[in-house]
Design brief:
Structural class: alpha+beta
Number of helices: 8
Protein name: Membrane protein
Strand content: 15-25%
Distance between the termini: 27 Å
Radius of gyration: 20 Å
Strand order of the largest sheet: 7-8-9-10-11
Helix content: 25-40%
């Protein structure tokens, strides 16, 4: 099994209490792990398989945290879809599908298994490698920037309303932005933001030189629109193809910069959507 010590696999497979799961595929992966799919796989020491993985998060009988990567992506996808619909689903991956058992959790998980000790990292001697852990919020960096973009994508209507409430005038070139007031929402207009112009230029460059797999992703949105996500060195962009975009930068901690519609943005978003990876 790739990326793990045999003792660690045995420990994780021994009465693993599954708490939740997520997908690690070119179209859907925890963005906290990287700007693209190969980078996210590398963060877990996994090769970037074409079909991806399912990541199962659980505790062993001693309460230790484990992240188990399986190659049965369909099984994990069905479990996630069932849970999202409020249905029960017993996710029990076959041992033959286990690719790696990694100590710790790379994500914040708020639940715990009943009847076992509180979640804690496994004994390093058994785990064979340092435990995974989610990023903290004490400092701002690439992981926090990507998590911020995730939040905007999930709460699009809320963030869009804040732009409207700020009464930001529409720019005439599609590249103006508004200074953000931290994670609380956008603030006053500030045309010609240098960082935003750089992001839009780098995003346009993806049209000529395709980026690593998963660097641009497209997901469902209401109506005929798509939710578009693009990442690059030091930046994240999240947009609706029929609306505006938001940019987050490593060099501007906590700032959310709206990019209003203008004449250029619609064409850029449409072109990016054509090259984006989509969920199957």
């Amino acid at each position: 099994m790739a990326g793990t010590d045999e003792d660690a696999v045995a420990a994780a497979d021994d009465a693993l209490y599954v708490l939740t799961a997520t997908l690690l595929t070119p179209a859907t992966f925890p963005s906290v792990l990287g700007d693209d799919y190969p980078e996210a796989c590398a963060a877990l020491g996994l090769p970037p398989l074409a079909d991806g993985y399912g990541l199962v998060f659980g505790q062993d009988g001693d309460g230790a945290r484990w992240t188990v990567a399986v190659d049965d992506v369909s099984l994990v996808a069905v479990a996630i879809a069932s849970w999202d619909c409020g249905m029960e689903y017993d996710l029990s991956p076959d041992e033959r599908s286990v690719v790696a058992a990694l100590p710790g959790w790379p994500l914040h998980i708020a639940v715990a298994a009943p009847g076992v000790p509180a979640p804690h990292d496994p004994d390093p001697a058994t785990a064979g490698r340092p435990a995974l852990s989610p990023p903290g919020d004490e400092t701002w960096g690439p992981a926090q920037r990507r998590l911020g973009a995730d939040e905007i994508a999930l709460q699009w209507s809320l963030w869009r309303q804040q732009v409207e409430a700020a009464s930001v005038p529409a720019p005439d070139d599609g590249s103006a932005a508004a200074d953000g007031s931290g994670r609380g929402g956008p603030g006053r207009a500030a045309s010609g933001h240098q960082g935003v112009r750089r992001v839009l230029a780098e995003a346009r460059a993806y049209l000529d030189t395709p980026p690593p797999l998963g660097r641009v992703r497209s997901a469902f949105a209401p109506g005929e629109a798509r939710t578009l996500r693009a990442d690059g060195p030091g930046w994240s962009l999240v947009a609706r193809t029929d609306d505006i975009a938001f940019v987050l930068l490593d060099e501007e901690p906590g700032e959310v910069l709206p990019v209003l519609r203008g004449p250029e943005l619609p064409g850029l978003l449409a072109a990016l959507d054509k090259l984006a990876v989509r969920p199957s």
